[in-house]
């Protein structure tokens, strides 16, 4: 398989382009810098899509640039950005109850989202949460959801891989608590979801079939790519690196399985 007919590249970050150390800094994996440079040199575009939602996308971009990746501020997408696009399209001007970090709350407010802590919220959105969770607020969220407010979440997988194993997703914990008592299924706005596919399409102004999604996680990245009909590439450098693809149902397998992004350099 070659990637020369691909017009836009969507990369996962952790386990695909960088490994993070205990200090939280990313160390670029072999070929990570070169592949981004090569795509740019070929006149095509790329974006990094991470499910991290603790800080605004431009801040993640700045951190990764300091770590050595050749990135511009607008070349990172997070669930906060895809949620914003979704809210603009489907709930413009409606009050949103947000469970998020202060930085994400600021980003949402600056983007014009009306935030509320009352149970008259029209939408409940959970992204990464830190610090103390107010159970009374979770109850108000559950009441809003019971009355019909959609429950959106940035990510609904158990967690992500850190240097010392799985780090549980606090956002998923809060989402699950509200979903359980309100008896609904949350709608994911990060990877993998229809909302995320729409965000990629909007970013590039291209059909998803013209894109390639490259990542280390079958359940997140490959699923995202397959949902929109993009080409999918699984790398071995992260979460599902030692996976036996024979155990993955055929409909969930990547188009291409390589050791790392450096193997893509001669396929561009
Ligand atoms: Mg990853």
Report on the architecture of this protein.
The structure is a single chain. The protein has 2 domains: 148 residues, HAD superfamily/HAD-like (Rossmann fold, 3-Layer(aba) Sandwich); 98 residues, Rossmann fold. The strands form 4 sheets. It has a 6-stranded parallel beta sheet, with helices on both faces. A 4-stranded parallel beta sheet has the order 6-7-8-11, with helices on one face. With 268 residues, the chain is of the alpha/beta class. The chain is built from 8 helices and 14 strands. 33% of the residues lie in helices and 19% in strands. The model has no long low-confidence stretch (mean pLDDT 94). Helix 5 crosses helix 6 and helix 7 packs across helix 8. The site of magnesium ion (MG) has 9 residues, from loops.
What is the strand and helix layout of this fold?
Blueprint lengths: L7 E4 L6 E3 L5 E3 L3 H10 L3 E5 L7 H10 L9 E2 L1 H12 L5 E4 L2 H9 L12 E4 L8 H12 L4 E3 L5 E4 L2 E4 L1 H13 L4 E2 L5 H11 L6 E5 L2 H11 L2 E5 L20 E3 L10
Parallel strand pairs: 1-4, 1-12, 4-5, 6-7, 7-8, 8-11, 12-13, 13-14
Antiparallel strand pairs: 2-3, 9-10
Bound molecules: magnesium ion.
The site of magnesium ion has 9 residues, from loops.
Task: Please bin the fraction of helical residues.
Answer: 25-40%
> Strand content of the residues, in percent?
15-25%
Please report the number of helical segments.
Answer: 8
Quaternary structure type: single chain
Strand order of the largest sheet: 5-4-1-12-13-14
Give the CATH superfamily of the largest domain. Answer: HAD superfamily/HAD-like
Which ligands are bound? magnesium ion
């Amino acid at each position: 398989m070659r990637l020369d007919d691909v017009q836009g590249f969507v990369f996962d970050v952790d386990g695909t382009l960088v490994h993070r150390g205990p200090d939280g800094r990313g160390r670029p994996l072999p070929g990570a810098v070169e592949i981004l440079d090569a795509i740019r040199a070929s006149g095509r575009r790329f974006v990094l899509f991470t499910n991290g939602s603790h800080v605004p996308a431009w801040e993640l971009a700045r951190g990764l640039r300091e770590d050595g990746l050749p990135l511009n501020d607008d070349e990172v997408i997070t669930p906060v950005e895809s949620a914003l696009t979704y809210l603009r399209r489907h709930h413009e001007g409606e009050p949103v109850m947000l469970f998020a970090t202060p930085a994400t709350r600021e980003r949402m407010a600056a983007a014009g989202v009306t935030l509320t802590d009352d149970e008259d919220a029209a939408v409940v959105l959970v992204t990464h949460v830190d610090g103390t969770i107010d159970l009374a607020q979770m109850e108000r969220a559950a009441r809003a959801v019971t009355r019909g407010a959609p429950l959106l979440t940035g990510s609904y997988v158990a967690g992500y891989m850190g240097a010392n194993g799985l780090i549980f997703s606090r956002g998923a914990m809060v989402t699950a608590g509200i979903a359980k008592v309100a008896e609904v299924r949350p709608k994911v706005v990060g990877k993998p979801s229809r909302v995320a596919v729409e965000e990629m399409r909007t970013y590039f102004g291209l059909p998803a079939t013209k894109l390639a999604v490259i990542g280390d996680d079958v359940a997140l990245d490959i699923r995202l790519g397959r949902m929109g009909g993009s080409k999918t590439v699984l790398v071995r450098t992260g979460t599902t690196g030692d996976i036996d693809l024979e155990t993955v149902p055929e409909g969930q397998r990547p188009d291409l399985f390589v050791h790392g992004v450096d193997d893509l350099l001669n396929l561009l």
